[in-house]
Amino acid sequence: MDTGAAGSIISAWFSKVANGFARGTPLEVDWTVLVLIVAGAAVLTVPRPTWRWFGLFVTFVHELGHAFAALMTGQMVKGIHLRFDHSGQMRSMGRSRLAAAWTGFWGYPVPAVVGALLVWAAFNGWAGFALSTGALVLLAALLFIRNAQGLVIACGCAGVSVLLVWFASPFAVSCITLGVGIALLAGAVRDWFNVLGVHTRRRRSLQSSDAFILYQRTGVPAVLWLAAFAVVIAASAAAALWWFRPAVG
């Protein structure tokens, strides 16, 4: 493929991304399609074989949450590590203890917050906007990946988003946005129970827990951080159910 053809393809893709920023038609589906979407989200998050793969995306969103929180407080993001065992790490540079606490908090709750926003976007005509924004964010995040496993995970996530922008119809984009939103909410709940298990049954792994790390940095007990995670996740789920009402009404 010559340079001109590649440039044309890239230009066409960015044109599709730009088109996605316009508001589209809100998602309206019957019960059959709605049940299929919810079932698809369950398939991604409940069975262990599929969670093994979708959970990598949830971890990526988790680490991006830390990265955005760091940038919000003026810190410099040094890099993101992702691993196939669903662990990850975001490294930033800053001196403020409050900024470090803010950055450390926005990991586990972020998949739930993003999931709720995707549910809202699907039912309000902004699914294309969500997909275009997500594709650009995932592509930009490649610049911050600092390990080989992370590069494979990030490229896979970015590649899927690129293909959806190129090939998915507006209706398909809305359905996928809703399904991924529900799956991210379910994934956030699953990850919260996993970190709770670290504190109650697998204490040898405490160093991997954001709640324990926040306790070390702030002196605030880990149980309060776990509770705060749960509050944000529960509030996100409640908001998603509220935005879901028109579909089930």
Automatic annotation (TrEMBL):
Q: Name one Pfam family in it.
A: Peptidase_M50B
Record keywords, A-Z: Membrane, Transmembrane, Transmembrane helix
The name on file for this protein is M50 family metallopeptidase
Q: Which residues cross the membrane?
A: 98-120, 126-144, 151-172, 178-198, 219-244
Do the record's keywords include Membrane? yes
The domain of life for this entry's organism is Bacteria
Cross-referenced InterPro entries, in alphabetical order? Answer: Peptidase_M50B-like (IPR049500)
The keyword GTP-binding is assigned to this record: no
